[in-house]
Design goal:
heterodimer; A: 443 residues; alpha/beta; D-Maltodextrin-Binding Protein, domain 2; 2 domains; five-stranded mixed sheet; three-stranded antiparallel sheet; B: 332 residues; mainly alpha; MetI-like fold; two-stranded antiparallel ribbon; 14 helices; 75% helix; Bact_solute-bd_prot1 (chain A); cell membrane (chain A); membrane (chain A); Sugar ABC transporter substrate-binding protein (chain A); lipoprotein (chain A)
Chain lengths: 443, 332
């Protein structure tokens, strides 16, 4: 019986393993650009991404020149198996030349040796074009491991119509936001101003970021981990109060339940990165003209500082044998207007480009009819200036965020507190990093 | 070559040796051949076992122990080149200070406390019923009890997941209609729900073990108890149950080992309830450490710790049963 069950679990484990299929297609790279050009053909590189619109971008790039040919493969989103696929391919030695990695995962992949140090490959032009706060997030010990595509300041998306109906003014500070939450609860039974997202580990990070929190710090040559530092405690106490006094719903929001709450007008606001302007358009087509976008509430009116939520970067993996061609493609992808136009042409997207020069292009390409013609890109531009640059993502961010969310799921079920969930993630993350042999310090 | 009769063996010897060697010297090579054949048979029969033991147990365990002590380290923040170093008990300290590992152990402990007594008592009770002859349709009952065990764990979990999920499940629907609002996948109910899947899968198997043991109870002992005036209940509890104790020990031990390795059912349930997190049981913790955290040292150390716990608990169960047996046997 024992043996049988053990075999059974093993089979299940094997079945659950993300298959490293398609790895074979990644072998087609190879041969430097010089060699390829000597043969007369273009250099071939491979590119994996989960970002929508990537195929259009690749097609536009391939059409724009004949030196480099990109073979694109759409892979699942990071948490849906995309990162596991990339990691497995790297272990097998056939990772693609270029891969999309979100900001929080950059240090982890860099430490594991999956990503190349791009510092010598990045041109001065590109270095100057990208927002310094974005590059700061992908640079460790003066080595840059990936090139930012977009930077996504946390915004407040709100139902203009419902705010007007209930006589609520747009909250500029978190105190005003709390007052508005009380008003909504009083005036609109069964409805709430907002939801505390129990699947929102990365949103919580964005809130802590805004409050000047510092979950990870590398300034002293070690990973100083302090998920429950003073500013974060302030943020947590705020949301715990909103939840305890029943001023906010508490449930996952990037799920059918969360989408339904918004569809039924039970929730008046949503806090997300700038990219979600497109997300809301896609998921709530019936609410056209009802939404507005505003800056995230501030802790005090004098301090404009804001955090981010989301955002992607492009990296070259250790298995790339064609780094110059790969970098040429990346530079085109993040900084060429045709690339942005191609990406936005694929459907509804409102990503805020990390290359400031592209903002006018995005503004022109984005149809702002859904937001009643509001100039949201000018708003994003103002907010992006205030993204504070102290933030550092940790080396096992997927697991840190997931541990927080596991705790928040229990909080939702009535067990424990938000602070408890974050403190557990703190201890678990420290165990993780220590076991990896990294220099750590408890902050 | 078979030397079954003296004549053939003599013939064989005659072929190989000089006929003048005499009976004394003839017996020695014959004996050696028999012994060699015995050893050969032993070897042929045991080799597969030892080969499998070596390749699917000892080498992986050795690999896990190695991985738990040696690590590919980079100094400082970790962005430099890797080198293999002896890490000592670093990974073990990390696992034992990780609250999520400790809570996975606690969850499994609670699961064992609910599941093991439940299945042992239920299986024994049903086996006693079948054995007493009180139950009609014994064969049908046995078959229907045993059938779920033939369903692979992953399929069982899928079936039950369907029955547990609100909106999909006819059971939840029916209960809702009767104004009973129950969430089988809630914080407090999910562990009993997993226990329920395990009972459904394994009850029949354990009933068979107990039933076989009960069938082996000598009939004259039972007749003697009837003559002494014991009713069917008393016979069952005071005569039959003590006699099937070795089977009970076996059932408890196998169930314990299986429970500590709980993986399939919660892994599948974690897809549809966030209450079952990615590190719900030690095996899930190990899987998560290796495949989502890419932290092989941590996964290996957790595996070794789990192995040690399983060995220690199995040993404790067998010691406890030996000790419990001794005074009785002495009394007899």
């Amino acid at each position: 019986m024992h043996g049988r069950h053990r075999r059974r679990s093993l089979l299940a484990a094997l079945a659950a393993l993300p298959l490293g299929g398609a790895a074979a297609t990644a072998c087609s790279s190879g041969g430097g650009p010089d060699r390829a050009q000597a043969r007369g053909g273009p250099a071939r590189i491979t590119f994996w991404s989960a970002l929508r619109g990537s195929q259009e971008v690749v097609d536009a790039f391939n059409k724009s020149q004949d030196r480099v040919r990109v073979d694109f493969e759409q892979i699942p989103g990071g948490q849906q198996g995309g990162y596991a696929k990339l990691r497995n391919a790297a272990r097998a030695g056939n990772a693609p030349d270029v891969a999309t990695v979100e900001y929080p995962q950059v240090p982890g992949f860099a430490i594991d040796g999956v990503l190349r140090d791009l510092t010598p490959l990045i041109s001065d032009r590109l270095r100057k074009a990208v927002l310094p706060a974005a590059f700061a997030l992908t640079t460790f010990e003066k080595r840059t491991y990936s090139v930012p595509l977009d930077i996504e300041p946390m915004m407040l998306f709100y139902r203009r119509d419902l705010f007007r109906k209930h006589g609520i003014d747009l909250p500029r500070t978190w105190a005003e936001f709390e007052d508005a939450a009380r008003t909504v609860r009083r005036k609109a039974p069964g409805k709430r101003l907002t939801t505390f997202p129990s699947d929102g580990g990365s949103r919580l990070a964005g809130f802590a970021w805004q409050a000047n929190g510092q979950w990870f710090d590398t300034r002293n040559g070690a990973w100083e981990v302090s998920l429950a530092d003073g500013p974060t405690r302030k943020v947590i106490a705020y949301w715990q109060r909103l939840v305890d006094e029943d001023l906010a719903f508490q449930n996952p929001i990037d799920t059918p339940v969360g989408v339904a709450q918004i569809a039924k007008s039970q929730v008046f606001t949503k806090m997300s990165g700038a990219w979600d302007a497109g997300g809301i358009m896609g998921s709530q087509p019936g609410q056209k003209g009802k939404w507005g976008v505003a800056p995230s509430p501030r802790w005090d009116a004098g301090n404009r500082q804001v955090g981010t939520h989301g955002g992607s970067t492009f990296a070259i993996t250790k298995d790339s044998r064609n780094t110059e061609a790969a970098m040429e493609f990346i530079e085109w992808q993040v900084s060429h207007p045709d690339s942005l136009r191609a990406r936005l042409s694929s459907g509804i997207s409102s990503m805020y480009p990390a290359v400031a020069g592209l903002v006018p292009v995005a503004r022109k390409a984005f149809d702002s009819g859904y937001y009643s013609g509001q100039d949201i890109y000018t708003l994003f531009e103002k907010e992006a200036e205030h993204v504070s640059d102290q933030w550092v993502w940790g080396p096992r961010m997927t697991s840190t965020v997931r541990t927080i969310e596991d705790g928040l799921a229990r909080v939702e079920g009535g067990h424990g507190t938000i602070l408890g969930a974050v403190e557990e993630a703190q201890r678990s993350t420290l165990s993780d990093l220590k076991s990896l042999g990294l220099a750590t310090r408890e902050g | 070559m078979t030397a079954t009769t003296p004549s053939t063996s003599t013939a064989a010897v005659r072929d190989g040796e000089a006929p003048a060697s005499g009976p004394g010297r003839r017996r020695t090579p014959r004996k050696r051949t028999a012994r060699q054949r015995e050893l050969g048979a032993c070897g042929a029969l045991m080799t597969p076992f030892f080969l499998l033991l070596l390749t699917v147990f000892l080498i992986p365990v050795g690999g896990a122990v190695y991985l738990s002590f040696f690590s590919q380290d980079q100094p400082g923040l970790g962005f430099g080149p890797e080198r293999t170093v002896f890490a000592g008990f670093r990974s073990y300290e990390a696992v034992l200070s990780d609250p999520t590992f400790l809570s996975s152990l606690a969850t499994t402990g609670l699961y064992c406390l609910i599941y093991i007594p439940l299945i042992a008592v239920l299986a024994l009770a049903i086996a006693l019923l079948l054995d007493s002859g009180a139950a009609k349709l014994r064969r049908t009952a046995q078959l229907s009890l045993f059938l779920p065990h033939a369903v692979p764990g992953i399929i069982a979990a899928i079936i039950w997941l369907y029955l547990y999920t609100p909106g999909l499940s006819p059971v939840v629907d029916l209960l809702n209609k009767g104004d009973i609002d129950i969430n089988f996948l809630g914080v407090n109910t999910v562990l009993p729900s997993i226990v329920n899947i395990a009972v459904w899968s394994n009850l029949g198997y354990n009933v068979v073990i107990f039933y076989a043991a009960l069938q082996a109870v000598p009939r004259e002992v039972l007749e003697a108890s009837v003559v002494d005036g014991a009713g069917p209940v008393r016979t069952a509890l005071q005569v039959k149950v003590p006699l099937v104790r070795p089977s009970a020990v076996m059932v408890v031990m196998f169930t314990l080992i299986w429970s500590l390795q709980l993986f399939t059912e919660p892994m599948l349930l974690s897809q549809s309830t966030r209450v079952v997190d990615s590190r719900f049981t030690p095996n899930m913790y190990i899987y998560d450490a290796a495949f989502t955290r890419a932290n092989y040292g941590l996964a290996a150390a957790a595996s070794v710790i789990l192995l040690v716990i399983i060995i220690a608990l199995s040993y404790a169960v067998s010691r406890w049963s030996n000790r419990a047996n001794t005074p009785e046997e002495a009394a007899q």
